[in-house]
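Homework help board

Subject: predicted structure for assignment chain

Our instructor gave us this sequence and asked us to write out the predicted structure in token form, then describe one feature. I got the tokens but I'm not sure how to describe them. Can anyone check?
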Amino acid sequence: MVVRTGLGEPRGPWFVSPGPVPDGGWPRGRPSGDGPQRPRGGWPGRTLAAAAAVVALSTASGAVAGGWVAGLDDPVGPPAASAAPVPAELVTAAERTVPGVVSVLVGAGRGRSATGSGFAVDDQQHIITNDHILARGTGGAVTVELPDGRRLPAEVVGREPRSDLAVLRVPPSAGLAPLPLARPGATRVGEPVLAVGSPLGLPGTVTAGIVSALDRQVRLGDNRHTAVQTDASINPGNSGGPLVNARGEVVGVNTAIATIDGNGSIGIGFAIPIEQVQQTADTIIGRGG
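My token output:
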């Protein structure tokens, strides 16, 4: 029998589907930390297995079939059709964003550790990230890995667990390029976005998608949030990284994804909207310097 768990298991705080279950309660996902995960067991039922197979097949078969048809009759012939061209503005946005994005490592070497991402927001070298990364690192030392590979100790300026945001600061020698923030209320459904971060410990990873929905009501952990939904691929380690538009402006902080049985991104990710990010970060920086 297939057991329904809302939209699946998050990588980040617990995600709970906003839809009610028959008993009037809320379906819960299961907790899971950021960073590489050990593969889990099989699907809980044949229905999910079949769905996974269909998804995998539909994703891969286009490329396989396309290559096979292109070479059927003419060994030279025209070149095989390539993927749709990437808009030039997204390439430019990626080039501008990556230098300001870092990997965040907490508690490495002692007790439980956690990894995630973060990004610089000003010339004072303040870095925004997710609070749940610090929480899962059990209060250990915080280290930031820069785009050039250097690792520097980071000061925790302040934390706001209810909004799942935290602000770090690294020494001026880091030289991080601050990312511009989008204007409040400017994000639109359907516009292209990039998720930038360190999924599975791979720094500087960029994935593309669109804004799937705005004002999505979700529960993350014990708190209700209004989130930006995106289909840009987000995986463990992306938490705390920026979701940016085609102009390279941050529209949200990647926080959680929905999965089926904990098996990676299924194209449903959630980011804290920039309005909340800016308000919380300004408050934390104002308090902590």
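Reply (TA_rk): Your tokens look well-formed. For the description, you could write something like this. Residues 1-33, 35-82 have pLDDT under 50 and may be disordered. That's the kind of observation they're looking for.
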